[in-house]
Write a structure and sequence with these properties.
heterotrimer; A alpha+beta (122); B mainly alpha (182); C alpha+beta (348); B: 182 residues; mainly alpha; C: alpha+beta; 17 strands; 24% strand; globular
Chain lengths: 122, 182, 348
């Protein structure tokens, strides 16, 4: 074994915990979110790919942002802006809604545990 | 040249060609034997043919290693009946990933003697690159499901263990060969 | 690892995830009913029965909403207009049970929960969702005029099915209790339909029953300052959790936040807490108490909770500090890192 071998092994061994933190164990993190308009599903999106989804609701376009395994309302045509103030959601069972624009986001749990939250008190 | 319709083609082969052919045959044998072995874990195999790639890289350079690996993937899939199937594509992408990662590793070993990785480091690098290559193509072509990423840490942990194992074997083989040819 | 086995492993694991989700008999339905967001979660019965029960519950909710809405023509609007006249009249029988609970809870809260201040709410414009109020806030003389009349629940006198108000300023607005009451009614309906494990969530007011296949239900509590979920709590059996917060309905005017929970003593939005959470067996009690504790604020909440017979409560102040009793502290699991500073009270 050379010094280089030790360096490679150390890097790999140190990288593993970081990978487990980043990607988790199979089925431990709510990785998808369902975006609904009214009572129908608009889209189901994975939370580990950053993107912005524009959702047409009753009043206009709600802009929904997905980043780092989290999802939030970026902007909304509603007057109250409660949905935007709600901030990020990330765990299975979390729920954000824009009642005036009829757009809602629910984070879906994965694996045997199902949703982390059964309901949200707000 | 005469006017008869038969054409006689003669291939001139070098010593290096013979060597590649022999080593590829060895790698293919290991590859096929391993595919018949029961797995220690469901879905996990050690990838011992990696040992041949590492030894060839050490003794004969990157081009020879690429030839041996390419022939192993091609002939192995033909013999196992998986040619052009998803298995073959995954195998090919793993091998390409490993070879691409081994090129800078070899360059480092030559440029920085004493500090750069030897067979053990190469083997680990190759094992991870093989896994990442396979994983990328599995995600891009076959299962574009984000849930797949949850498997990545476990797969890399297992391939690290097997990378170390084949690195140790490669180290022993290289030392024996050097002792025999010295 | 050989490639084919990689594919098999992935597919097998993905299938495992998919199976464990679909084999659960958990039925969830959410939607909008009468301007509020409603979510039903039912465990342990087959989907067609769950669907039918939810459809019936939606209908009940529509009926309740129609009865309890003071600002559109209906039972309560009629009663409010008759209170202004001096005389006995026949009350809407669908309103009487909620009226009785409201009177009792208002009394126990020392008037901090006061559904008789509909006039104040109207002055602020918080009865409107569409469009929501924008300010400016009402003039202090207007508020003072209503406060001087001191509308209270004790001004109402019930004689069987008849009712009379001794104060023409009484205008009932059940905004601080109707959702909790409705959640209790819907859960009772589920029980009659043979459902024993369910959650009813009406605009964030949560009533649970039974369990999630033997496991307690896990409820997330919204973070009033900051984002997402502040804490979670596990609930089992007949329990409900209701939070009143200044983030639910508010407007900003000249940089100041004006929210919908009014202090009946001043006529102004309460300023002594960002949110108040109450856990009680009945959602109707938790709802009224959450409003009262929100008004009482971080100094007086403990005395008010005691007077109302509340055993578990949590307040969050403007700076994000959490105030709660020791029993609640044992049950709450903070979901934010680092956890917020906690001020523990005497046991309730």
């Amino acid at each position: 074994m050379t010094r280089g071998d030790y360096i490679v092994l150390t890097v790999c061994v140190l990288a593993l915990p970081a990978l487990f933190v980043r990607y988790g164990l199979p089925g431990s993190i709510g990785t998808q979110a369902r975006i609904s308009v009214g009572n129908s599903v608009f889209a189901q999106v994975p939370l580990n790919r950053a993107r912005v989804v524009r959702v047409p609701g009753a009043l206009g376009i709600s802009e929904i942002e997905i980043r780092d395994g989290q999802i939030r309302f970026n902007s909304s045509p509603c007057p109250g802006q409660q949905c935007v103030h709600s901030g990020w959601a990330k765990r299975g069972g979390e729920f954000i809604a824009c009642v005036p624009n009829r757009v809602s986001i629910s984070v879906l749990g994965q694996g045997a545990g199902g949703d982390y939250y059964d309901s949200i008190n707000f | 040249m005469n006017s008869t319709p038969t054409t006689h083609v003669s291939l001139t082969t070098t010593r290096a060609d013979h060597r590649v052919a022999w080593l590829a045959a060895l790698a293919i044998t290991i590859h096929i034997m391993e595919s018949a072995l029961p797995s220690p874990l469901p879905g996990v195999k050690p990838g011992l043919a990696n040992v041949v790639t590492i030894v060839v890289l050490w003794r004969y350079g990157w081009a020879a290693a690429a030839w041996v690996t390419g022939l192993r993937v091609l002939a192995g899939s033909l013999l196992l009946g998986t040619f052009l199937s998803p298995t073959f594509v995954l195998s090919l992408c793993g091998a390409v990933g490993a070879l691409l990662a081994l090129a800078p590793a070899l360059w480092m070993t030559r440029a920085l003697p004493g500090w750069a990785p030897g067979p053990m480091g190469w083997s680990v690098v190759a094992a991870w690159a093989h896994m990442v290559g396979q994983f990328w193509v599995a995600y891009a072509l076959f299962i574009p499901h984000e849930g797949l990423f949850h498997l990545l840490p476990i797969l890399l942990a297992v391939s690290l263990v097997f990378g170390v194992a084949s690195g140790a074997v490669a180290d022993v083989v290289i030392k024996r060969l050097e002792a025999a040819t010295a | 690892m050989r490639p084919i086995t990689l594919v098999f492993l992935c597919v097998a694991l993905l299938d495992l995830c998919a199976c464990s989700r679909t084999s659960e008999t958990l039925y969830k339905e959410s939607g909008y009913a009468m301007g509020s967001l409603v979510e039903f979660t039912i465990y342990g019965i087959d989907e067609p029965r769950a669907k039918a029960a939810v459809a019936a519950a939606q209908k009940d909710l529509g009926f309740l909403h129609g009865n309890f809405d003071p600002w559109h023509p209906g039972s309560l609007a009629r009663m409010n207009s008759l209170f202004a006249l001096d005389g006995r009249f026949t009350a809407a029988t669908s309103v009487l049970p909620l009226l009785a609970r409201s009177t009792e809870l208002s009394q126990r809260s020392g008037g901090l929960f006061n559904p008789a201040i509909g006039k104040l709410i109207h002055l602020w414009g918080f009865q409107n969702d569409d469009p929501p109020p924008k300010g400016p806030p009402p003039a202090s003389e207007q508020l003072a005029a209503v406060l001087a009349q001191q509308p209270r629940m004790s001004d109402l006198h019930v004689y069987g099915v008849e009712i009379q108000s001794s104060n023409p300023a009484v205008v009932l607005d059940f905004g601080g209790i109707a959702q909790g009451y409705a959640a209790d009614v819907l859960i009772e309906g589920f029980k009659l339909a043979g459902i024993h494990n369910a959650i009813v969530n009406i605009s964030g007011d949560v009533r649970v029953m039974g369990s999630h296949g033997g496991q307690p239900w896990r409820i997330g509590i919204h973070n009033p300052r900051g984002t997402g979920v502040l804490a979670s709590i596990e609930m089992k059996g007949d329990e409900s959790i209701v939070t009143s917060g200044d983030y639910e309905r508010f407007y900003m005017y000249e940089g100041k936040r004006y929210h919908h929970i009014l202090d009946p003593r001043s006529g102004l939005p309460s300023q002594r807490a960002a949110s108040a959470t109450v856990i009680d067996a009945e959602a109707v009690v938790a709802d009224a108490a959450a409003t009262a504790l929100m008004v009482a604020g971080v100094k007086d909440w403990h005395a008010v909770a005691k007077a109302m017979g509340i055993k578990s409560a949590m307040l969050v102040d403007d700076a994000g500090r959490v105030y709660m009793d020791p029993a609640t502290a044992r049950r709450i699991h903070f979901e934010v890192d680092p956890p917020p500073p906690v001020v523990l009270s005497e046991p309730l």
